[in-house]
Specification:
The chain is α/β, with parallel strands linked by helices. It contains 33 helices and 25 strands.
Length: 838
């Protein structure tokens, strides 16, 4: 098999890392991929460096050949110059390729992994757009619906009809799930809303699916054409059966009074109550950067296509960054808003429409993109459903992001030096997610609604907001004193003293309530009958631990160390790891820190460690402790760093994916060797540091008594344990509904593990997603867990849930739950059994 390597050269480091990650996932890390992107200039990081390109080529050089893919301009010059630094014999092995960066990289790694030679790999990279062009050619009219009479669509091989039951129908998040699921299969999916008598639309188009206007109670017909038609429809039907994971109540729903506009008295501005709370502060105006758009004739249409593709891919990276930050600030459920924005950028109908405008009209990318975005926005605005009409904000948000990148503009500055009330015409969801609640004390806009995504994010961030006020507010000078009440939907400009006194009293009461809630989060989690449970945090970075401590975490129950190893061309050094572990331990200030050793391999490959063969079943493959025991240098380096960081801190080691006693003993032997080496070198470490294991495979449960004799603690990973017990891949939509940690089979395994641990006198925690589900809290208490480890945002809610329960009632619920026959019945049991505190 050829050992061809790929080098990605780009002006944008984020873009290059994203391309590498995408390409590496295609081949499970079989092909070496190096990145040379960006320059070391914090103020202007975009650019290329010939020395960096040379180093990247040298790091993966292969006699079988190195393929270099580049974006535009200086990237080509830097690559040409870098080759000159190589020895002449090596220069002949390095090939610069003009293929499109993203598609070319994917095609190249797949060809290289298949054993093709360098010339075949180059040919595949150059032809990478052909497959996309063929696929996008399925629709003749860019944004029109698809009718059954279209010549390139065969008669459907399978069809289903169903009634939509989730409360808001196919709004942004369910629509995104629908499109993402449809895209996993080969069949072509067409959908029609029978209730609204729409035409058929493509199931892989986020905009066409959303603009069907599907609401609760509507009847749909879905057809699939292709070899896997039955499997495709079964997976889609599973989404509807499961209500797309929603519980039929509106998450973070606005208060009932919001839809009424309160009549204003003299001196007041009346608006829509969108986010509760009182704010009194000077105003600061926010105006998004205006992008001047001019349509002009172009000769090089391919260059325009590449410009558009580069802007779209950079936009995708930016939205992913917004999603990551939003997940931390507002939680995964609300951050999923940005999942729909990502799918907008992958919509084949949209991309085809923009491409055709460029190719047929010879116009610039900006003009083509804006025309298509305007067409989509108009299709949303003409819908009868007011909720779906408001999704136009997300369309415009994404469209403006791409236009900004095409124009080469920096993002708008939303940083405030002093606390203020932000006044604007409107705020996009991306704008709102970037706000700092300590500086933006309130929001006042002249448009918007309480059910918009921006309003939802404002409520989650705890920023009071009044929307839809008179446009006169836009003429106020910066620094003008304003007061607003997000509960009543009123605002006051330069309010009189008696208004200020009333609002100040209301603000003080609101702030006191907020402070009490935060203070409760920093109190121990104690049941009504006096049982205390430790509440720790699951983290994956230094920034995570700061959020965790601020949220009331009593320690870290799971530090995922994989973040140290990803997005790089070689493993982190001992010193690099030591610095991170010490920094996290310092923030924790002597709170416990459980560090899980590297858990990669199988479904989470490292690009710089070649497996040598693809794994048919990666979840059952070479991962976790198995991987580390086969890479002793990697394992020992991490153990040395953890041991050295343990001095003066409460650090514990946790081993992942343990299936046998032999694995634990082997790991302990290696740990002993590292301890002896450090001792010999006179390097300090905590000789009494505790060692624990993850219990996440059924074999570990079966021999839990034997494993408990070998270690100091257990931590149950219900995410993996559930899928192994139920023999169901949680990433496969056709069977994912079986993976429910509240299934009695899983609960019995958890009970067995806890009983074995306590019989041996060791503690046992749980760090899977189940720990953050407050519906499951009585079950986890009743099973007797000593510790729960959850994402930082969930800590206050979990502590409050524990404070409302007693151990006696929790144990009674568990006794009944273990006798149920399904997870559904367990959930029903909990809902009807928990009684409010007296």
């Amino acid at each position: 098999m050829a050992a061809i390597a790929i080098v990605i050269v780009s002006h944008s480091k984020q873009l290059a890392l994203g391309v590498r990650e995408l390409a590496a996932q295609m081949v499970q890390g079989q092909v070496p991929i190096a990145v040379a992107a960006g320059i070391e200039d914090p103020e202007n990081p975009l650019g290329t460096d010939p020395i960096q390109v040379y180093e990247a080529i040298a790091s993966v050089f292969s006699d079988d050949g190195v393929l270099v893919l580049m974006d535009l301009g200086s990237a080509l010059l830097s690559a040409e110059m870098a080759i000159e630094f190589l020895p002449e014999v090596q220069q002949q092995k390095v090939h610069l390729c003009e293929a499109p960066l993203v598609e070319g990289a994917i095609a190249a790694v797949v060809a290289a992994a298949a054993g093709m030679d360098i010339h075949q790999v180059m040919a595949e990279a150059r032809g990478a757009l052909l497959a996309k062009a063929t696929q996008l050619g399925l629709v003749s009219s860019p944004l029109s619906v698809v009718t059954p009479t279209t010549t390139n669509i065969e008669a459907p091989t399978a069809q289903i009809r169903l009634i939509v039951s989730n409360r808001l129908g196919l709004h942004a998040r369910p629509a995104a799930q629908f499109v993402a699921t449809a895209a996993r299969f080969q069949s072509q999916i067409l959908v029609r809303n029978l209730t609204r008598n729409t035409e058929l639309v493509r199931g892989d188009s986020i905009n066409q699916v959303t603009t069907l206007g599907v609401r609760q109670g509507h009847e749909l017909v879905i057809t699939a054409t292709g070899s896997d038609a039955d499997e495709t429809l079964a997976a889609l039907q599973g989404l509807f059966t499961n209500n797309f994971g929603e519980d039929n109540i509106t998450l973070n729903s606005p208060p009932a009074f919001q839809h009424q506009v309160t009549p204003a008295t003299h001196g007041e501005l009346s608006g829509i109550a969108a986010s509760p709370g009182v704010a009194i502060a000077p105003v600061v105006h926010y105006q998004p950067i205006h992008i001047s758009l001019t349509e002009y004739h172009v000769e090089d249409v391919e260059a325009e296509l590449q410009r558009l593709q580069a802007a779209i891919h950079t936009a995708r990276q930016e939205i992913q960054a917004v999603f990551s930050q939003a997940s931390l600030q507002i939680g995964d459920a609300e951050a999923a808003i940005f999942d729909a924005q990502l799918l907008f950028l992958e919509d084949p109908v949209l991309l085809e429409a923009a491409k055709e405008r460029i190719l047929e009209n010879y116009i610039n990318a900006e003009a083509a993109w804006q025309a298509v975005v305007d067409e989509v926005a108009t299709s949303y605005r003409t819908l009868e459903d007011s909720y779906l009409q408001e999704r136009v904000d997300d369309v415009i948000d994404v469209g403006q992001r791409v236009l900004r990148l095409l124009a080469g503009n920096a993002p708008a500055n939303l940083y405030l030096e002093k606390p203020a009330i932000l006044v604007a015409t409107d705020l996009t969801p991306s704008d709102t997610a970037r706000l700092d609640p300590t500086k933006v004390l309130g929001i006042c806009t002249t448009s918007g609604s309480a059910t918009s995504h921006s309003a939802i994010i404002a409520r989650t961030l705890g920023i009071p907001a009044v929307l839809g006020v008179d446009a006169q507010v836009l003429h106020l000078a910066d620094g003008t004193l304003m007061a607003l009440d997000g509960e009543s939907g009123r605002a006051w400009v330069e309010p009189e003293s008696h208004i200020l006194d009333l609002l100040a009293a209301k603000q003080e009461a609101w702030q006191t309530a907020q402070q009490e809630a935060r203070a409760t989060a920093h109190q121990p989690a104690i049941t009504r009958d006096g049982r205390q449970v430790s509440i720790f945090a699951n983290i994956g970075s230094i920034s995570d631990v700061q959020v965790a401590v601020a949220s009331g975490a009593e320690g870290v129950g799971l530090l995922r160390t994989e973040f140290l190893y990803l997005d790089r061309t070689s493993a982190p050094t001992e010193e690099e790891q030591l610095a991170v572990y010490q920094a996290i331990a310092k923030v924790l200030d002597n709170r416990p820190l459980i560090i899980r050793t590297l858990d990669v391999g199988g479904d989470k490959p490292l690009p710089y460690l070649r497996v040598g063969f693809p794994e048919a079943n990666p979840f059952l493959g070479w991962r976790g402790i198995r991987f580390c025991l086969d890479h002793l240098d990697l394992f020992k380096t991490q153990l040395r760093a953890i041991l050295r960081a343990s001095v003066g801190h409460q650090i514990k080691i946790m081993l992942p994916m343990i299936a046998t006693v032999t694995e634990v003993r082997a790991a302990k032997v290696i740990l002993g060797e590292v301890q002896a080496e450090l001792k010999q070198a006179g390097i300090s470490f905590d000789a009494a540091m505790k060692v624990g294991i993850m219990v996440e495979v059924p074999s570990a449960v079966a021999i839990a008594d034997q494993l408990a004799a070998e270690v100091d603690f257990f931590s149950i990973g219900t995410n993996d344990l559930s899928q192994y017990i139920m023999a169901s891949d949680r990433t496969n939509p056709r069977v994912a509904n079986l993976v429910d940690a509240l299934h009695p089979a899983v609960l019995r395994m958890v009970q067995q593990t806890i009983q074995a641990a306590h019989a041996a006198g060791i503690s046992v925690g749980l760090c899977g997603e189940l720990a953050a589900d407050t519906l499951a809290t009585p079950i986890l208490l009743g099973l007797g867990l000593d510790e729960l480890s959850v994402n930082p945002q969930s800590i206050p809610g979990v502590k409050q849930a524990i404070a409302r329960l007693t151990i006696v009632e929790s144990e009674a619920i568990v006794a009944s739950a273990l006798q149920q026959d399904s997870a559904v019945h367990v959930r029903e049991l909990i809902s009807t059994s928990v009684t409010p505190p007296a």
